[in-house]
Amino acid sequence: DQQVKQNSPSLSVQEGRISILNCDYTNSMFDYFLWYKKYPAEGPTFLISISSIKDKNEDGRFTVFLNKSAKHLSLHIVPSQPGDSAVYFCAAILLQGAQKLVFGQGTRLTINP
Amino acid sequence: SAVISQKPSRDICQRGTSLTIQCQVDSQVTMMFWYRQQPGQSLTLIATANQGSEATYESGFVIDKFPISRPNLTFSTLTVSNMSPEDSSIYLCSARGAGDTQYFGPGTRLTVL
Q1: A47, A61, B41, B96: which could join B102 in a potential S-S bond, CB 3.0 to 4.6 Å?
Q2: pLDDT tens digit sequence for B86-111
Q3: What total number of domains does chain A contain?
Q4: Which residues on B lie below 8 Å from A44 (Cβ)?
Q5: Architecture of the CATH domain B27-95
């Protein structure tokens, strides 16, 4: 049972444009969401997070939007830069209980010059 | 944020042998975790490393195969025992401190021949 889904395995965006990465989840009890960026041969790097009580969080070029009614979150990167090319994972967590991160399958973002 | 280091960064091992991976966090953390990322896959939680007690394993992972130690609040080890080629993977240490953000180490790339 895949509780967190990233339905797009890959995304290609032109440099300078907006990159939008999407994530859907099935468990309405998740109360915290995180985005990670991963380069090959490195560990995931934390990017940005959002609590379930908010609908938007912004940090520089990165903005995460949460739509609880749709059980959907998205990561916007603007403007996209070549260094943003990586695999992006969304993750969700239940802060009560076991507090285990549940990851999506990842989306490979390629920024084209 | 927590800075996490892992040793070794990579290793090539023979079938039937065991490898112990070390994880060091630069600050005391409440929770430590071990993940595995197989080629082309998402991150899979192996276990939660509990300080002073036995680790909590996820379904499909057992202590005999993946013994874990956590002697204090900043250090943990994961042993991959009696290795087979199917154990070839990236093993990642992760930690969460006082906040809700979870950080990852750089990973250990294991190849079993």
Answers
A1: B96
A2: 999 999 999 987 777 899 999 999 99
A3: 1
A4: 43, 92, 104
A5: Sandwich (2.60)
